[in-house]
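User: Now give one protein:

AI:
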Amino acid sequence: MSNPQLTDEEYSKFYISDIYSEIYKGGVNFTEKIDWRYKDSNPIFQYLEPIMKNNNLKKIIEFGCGGGWNLIPFRNNGFDVIGYDYSPKLINHGKDNYNLNLKQGSFDDVENVGDFDLIILNHVIEHFTDMENSLEKLKKIIKPNGMIYVGLPNLELFARGQFQNAHTYYFTKKTFKHYMEKFGFEVIELGKYDTTDHMHGILKISEKNKEFLKINLKNEYKTQLKKIFFGVLKIRITGFLDSFNVLSFVKKILGK
């Protein structure tokens, strides 16, 4: 968990004002750069569609949905979808241009409690300010046999972009599994997301799950500190060499 961090009120203002999107999604005119995301298919849909069909899951809610691009292939294939996001510009973009059912807000604004088969949290959970409390709220929204899809950065696959003021939690596979199970979920699957430095998992409610007690986190913190140190060192060396055009020269020789 990052320390220090903004308060809940400060984070809300940060997201609602669209400052977050302007910083991390392309500047003041960020909505002009997102239409490429609206596709008939995407890795999340390709991964989840067979799982949903096999388990007869039909109703989807996504938090942190942005402009709703993840929901497009689900909507187009007959699933009932709704998305929530703090950003007024992104919500309006998805509603006005793609006719998506999107609303501004988050967990506390959902009226249909216990009504959803699937919750999508794609790069959302690392933004929580109170992990346990947020997960408890999610339990009230989902059906007893429902699932939660989580996509998030994997700290083991170090990348500079993972570290930002909006990220309050950082996970490895071990720590993610430990805390999800500690807070009442069973991690059905946990794997790498596509070819990036991210991972994804599927969760189900499991109040009696004590598997987290078997996960040894004793050396996890020290291990990740070492990885971060060498990751930062690599970035600085790369930046230094690039300042002298050394990397460009080597890439040119190698034909990259």
User: Anything to note?
Assistant: The chain has a mean pLDDT of 84.
